[in-house]
Specification:
The protein is 28% helix and 30% strand. It is an alpha+beta fold. The strands form two sheets. Strands 1, 3, 6, 9, 10, 11 and 12 form a seven-stranded antiparallel beta sheet that branches. Strands 2, 4, 5, 7 and 8 form a five-stranded antiparallel beta sheet that branches.
C-alpha cells in the first residue's frame, strides 16, 4: 500500500526549542508554542513519529522558561518596591548632616575631618583641594584616625573663599607614599535620589554625591 504525505519539513522533524526573544516575548508566546506543537503532531512522518516523551520535554522546557520569566518580573517589582520604601525611610536624612568621604561646602566655619591613614603609615599629610581638584593647602599631622579640625585659613591666617573643598590623606612610610584616601566629613544632606540602575545616592549641599552605603553616621544639623 502506498503511503502519501510522508514528507515533512525539517522544522517538523526537529524538536521545538523555546524562542530566544526578550522576556516579555517569551511570556506572551506560550499559545504560539502550543500551536506549533500541534502542527508538528499533525505533520509528523507516520513511519517515523516523534516519541511522546519528546513532546513532554518540549512542554516542560518551555514551561520552565515561562516560569523563570515570571519569577524575574516578580523580583524586579519587589526590588522597585523595596527601593521606594528605602527612599521614604531616608527622607528623614534631608536637612541633617551625614558623615562620608566627600567634598564639603565651606562657609567660614571650621571643618572636622575624620582621617583613615594606612596601618603602616609613620606620618601623614592632609591635602586640601578646591572644587576643581587644585591643591590649595597641605599640612602634616601625627598619624592617627582621631578627628582633625581644619580652620579654613591659609599659612598666613587668611580665610579661604567659600566653596566646595575635599581633603586627601596621604600616608607615608618614611619618605614613601603608601596610600592616599579621602577624609570623611559631615556635610548637609539636600536630597536622596534613586538612579535608573536602582542605586540610592545622597546629594549634599554644594552638589557632591555618594552612595547611601558610604554614609557612616547621621546627626542633627548644627544651628
Amino acid at each position: 500500500m502506498e503511503i502519501t504525505n510522508t514528507q515533512t519539513s525539517t522544522a517538523a522533524q526537529n524538536v521545538i526549542t523555546p524562542p530566544t526573544e526578550s522576556a516579555s516575548e517569551i511570556s506572551s508566546d506560550f499559545e504560539t508554542f502550543l500551536k506549533m506543537l500541534t502542527v508538528q503532531m499533525q505533520n509528523q512522518d507516520p513511519l517515523n513519529p516523534v516519541d511522546s516523551s519528546d513532546y513532554a520535554v518540549q512542554l516542560a522546557t518551555f514551561s520552565n522558561v515561562e516560569q523563570q520569566v515570571q519569577t524575574n518580573d516578580i523580583l524586579k517589582d519587589l526590588k522597585a518596591q523595596l527601593g521606594l520604601s528605602g527612599i521614604a525611610q531616608m527622607a528623614d536624612w534631608v536637612g541633617k548632616e551625614a558623615r562620608a568621604a566627600t567634598a564639603v561646602q565651606f562657609s567660614g566655619a571650621p571643618v572636622t575631618l575624620f582621617p583613615s591613614p594606612a596601618d603602616s603609615a609613620t606620618e601623614m599629610d592632609v591635602v586640601v583641594k578646591d572644587a576643581t581638584g587644585f591643591e590649595v593647602a597641605r599640612f602634616t599631622q601625627p598619624t592617627s584616625d582621631e578627628p582633625i579640625e581644619w580652620a579654613g585659613v591659609d599659612a598666613n591666617g587668611v580665610p579661604f573663599a567659600s566653596g566646595l573643598y575635599s581633603f586627601d590623606i596621604e600616608s607615608f612610610d618614611g619618605d614613601t607614599l603608601v596610600e592616599t584616601t579621602q577624609a570623611a566629613v559631615y556635610a548637609t544632606v539636600r536630597e536622596v535620589q534613586k538612579t535608573p540602575a536602582g542605586d540610592t545616592l545622597v546629594v549634599f549641599e554644594g552638589g557632591s554625591t555618594v552612595p547611601a552605603s558610604d554614609v557612616s553616621a547621621i546627626r542633627a544639623a548644627n544651628t
